[in-house]
Write a structure and sequence with these properties.
13 helices; EC 2.1.3.3; four-stranded parallel β-sheet; binds norvaline; binds phosphoric acid mono(formamide)ester; globular; alpha/beta; about 45% helix; Rossmann fold; about 325 residues
């Protein structure tokens, strides 16, 4: 039987397919319980801390609501309001937080920070997004796929469109490799060239064992038979100065109805981790438009179409993050 007590959740690469299966099943179970109004409070008496060096809506709220639902207490620290990394080393901060808390969530830049937090704190650390991974998002995406597509994961083809060298693209490669899925990173060669070769070779090694197919392509032929079209913003948090270049490179990879048609799958679903620039209803999209850059990575038509399951996906962030916390410290 799977037992994840005391484990950190830094990347799906640290987990077996059976362990990932267990987390998805637990998520489904916790979602059904919440819907039925059943209170478990399996985290009563636990304290967790959320460390955010980048902004967040879904991830932060998922951790907070999950803890409230299960009876745990939450402390939130952003980069401006703690000593970590500025007046106190990461090692010392981690040792202190490990004395206070039963678990630590971290969102920031380098993957080595979550690794060091886990090493020095002695308590489970959960990766809430780094520059190269976003593993809790992938659990939510897989749960959403299972809810909307009537096939086992290892028969599902996911095409990730756009910035193939970002955290979501890598996180998907890890997840698909582990679960034996078919993954295509569909984007321009200029960005594919910047992909981390070490990550790709690790992923390919896992894929050989699980039967996963991992491809990188700039040809629209790769869209055929996709079950899931996935995209993300073109310039991730901290990369805003790349916007002019990315608009130039990625406009041909904007998700449109014509792109969905090229899958030749009438039931294809559209997913997006969010937040999304599908219209000009944000300050950032408007400011960029004034400078002459259209940063919409998906059309409003696709975003609001029957194919789009983005709000089910967003809700599933909470249920899957709850499963990770319950499994590791519950
Ligand atoms: N998808 C996601 O991680 O959203 P937030 O940045 O709002 O947490
Ligand atoms: N690639 C995006 C994901 C946001 C959830 C970013 O890092 O900003």
């Amino acid at each position: 039987a799977v037992n994840l007590k005391g484990r950190s959740f830094l990347t799906l690469m640290d987990f077996t397919p059976e362990e990932i299966r267990y987390l998805l099943d637990l998520s489904r179970d916790l979602k059904a319980k919440k819907r039925a109004g059943i209170k478990n409070e399996v985290l009563k008496g636990k304290n967790i801390v959320l460390l955010f060096e980048k902004t967040s809506t879904r991830t932060r709220c998922s951790f907070e609501v999950a803890c409230h639902d299960e009876g745990a207490c939450v402390t939130f620290l952003d980069s401006k309001s703690s000593q970590m990394g500025k007046k106190e080393s990461l090692e010392d901060s981690a040792k202190v937080l490990g004395r206070f808390f039963d678990g630590i969530e971290y969102r920031g830049y380098e993957q080595s920070v979550v690794e060091d937090l886990a090493k020095y704190s002695g308590v489970p650390v959960w990766n809430g997004l780094t520059d190269v991974d976003h593993p809790t998002q992938i659990l939510a995406d897989m749960l959403t796929i299972e809810e909307h597509i009537d096939k086992p994961l290892n028969k599902v083809k996911v095409v990730f469109c756009g910035d193939v060298r970002n955290n979501m693209s890598y996180a998907w490669m890890y997840g698909c490799a582990k679960m034996g899925m078919h993954f295509v990173a569909y984007g321009p060669d200029e960005l594919a060239k910047q992909m981390d070769e070490k990550i790709i070779s690790e992923v390919k090694k896992v894929a050989e064992k699980t039967g996963a197919v991992i491809e990188i392509s700039s040809s629209e032929n790769c869209l055929k038979d996709a079950d899931v079209i996935y995209t993300d913003i073109w310039a991730s948090m901290g990369e805003e100065e790349e916007i002019p270049e990315r608009v130039k490179l990625l406009t041909p990879y904007k998700v449109t109805m014509e792109m969905l048609d090229k899958t030749e799958n009438p039931d294809v679903i559209f997913l997006h981790c969010l937040p999304s620039f599908h219209d000009f209803e944000t300050d950032m999209a408007r400011e960029q438009k004034e400078k002459g850059y259209d940063i919409r990575e998906v059309t409003d038509e696709v975003f609001r179409s029957r194919h789009s399951k983005v709000f089910d996906e967003a809700e599933n962030r909470m249920h899957t993050i709850k499963a990770v916390i319950v499994a590791t410290i519950g």
